[in-house]
Write a structure and sequence with these properties.
2 domains, mainly beta, 1 helix, signal, Ig-like_dom_sf, 227 residues, transmembrane signaling receptor activity, Ig-like domain-containing protein, Immunoglobulin-like, 5-stranded mixed beta sheet, 45% strand, disulfide bond
Length: 227
């Protein structure tokens, strides 16, 4: 059964002036600008409205089948109780069935059909930013890209890595190629791409390749200073 739509009212203050009486206090009125379905909000707006993040450990978005992965909702205000939700090719609006609904743990049993979008949602329908989890397809995935699962801030140092599936292939020598939005940005012999003093312009979809094998793409989001 499809989840019911939840609407969030966005409220902004309007300041009214009082003609020729500058010393008279201004009045502030609250007006609803519009209503939006929670899941249709942008990730940036969700982070502004709701102080919750979906943490991924290990801190990356791509995984090999049978990896161990832990997801958890972190609310800095502790104002709501959160449940991890997901949409995959096999599950729509599926709730975490574990006793601790704000933690979703895969103990060496992440499977390719667990790939999809995950997010934290409260009983009131508030929803955090979505995280896109990818898992290699059986018998094909040898290389994945390690990149931060959450946005990073301008000025930080970010390292992307090409990782080999230890169950399928032994790491060999050769050149690793990193791509951003389809364009080659770096050749590396060590499999690492380090970006010092990362800028908003470094945001984009990154992939890596080695010996003809191309990883899936993951988005690196860099927040502007003060965002």
């Amino acid at each position: 059964m499809e989840a019911q739509a939840t609407f969030v009212g966005l409220v902004a203050p309007i300041v009214t002036q009082h003609g020729d009486y500058p010393n008279k206090p201004t009045q502030k009125k609250q007006v609803v600008i519009r209503k939006l379905q929670c899941m249709n909000l942008s990730n940036a707006l969700k982070r502004f409205l709701f102080a919750v993040s979906l943490r991924v450990f290990p801190n990356r978005l791509q995984f090999f089948q049978y990896d161990s992965v832990s997801l958890s909702c972190e609310d800095q205000t502790n104002a709501s109780e959160w449940t991890i939700m997901r949409n995959t090719s096999f599950h729509k609006n599926e709730k975490n069935s574990a006793q601790n609904k704000s933690n979703w743990v895969f103990n060496s049993n992440l499977y390719y059909n667990d790939a999809g979008v995950y997010w934290c949602q409260s009983e009131r329908g508030e929803c955090g930013a979505v995280v896109n989890i990818n898992c290699d397809v059986p018998h094909t995935g040898h290389v994945i890209l390690e990149s931060p699962s959450l946005p990073v801030k301008e000025g930080e140092t970010v390292t992307l890595r090409c990782l080999f599936n230890p169950r399928k292939k032994t790491r060999t020598e050769g050149t690793f190629v990193f791509f951003k939005d389809g364009d080659c940005v770096r050749n590396s012999t060590g499999g690492d791409l380090t970006i010092h003093n990362v800028a908003h312009s470094d945001s984009g979809l990154y992939t890596c390749s080695h010996q003809g094998e191309l990883s899936l793409g993951s988005t690196l989001e860099v927040l502007k200073t003060g965002q």
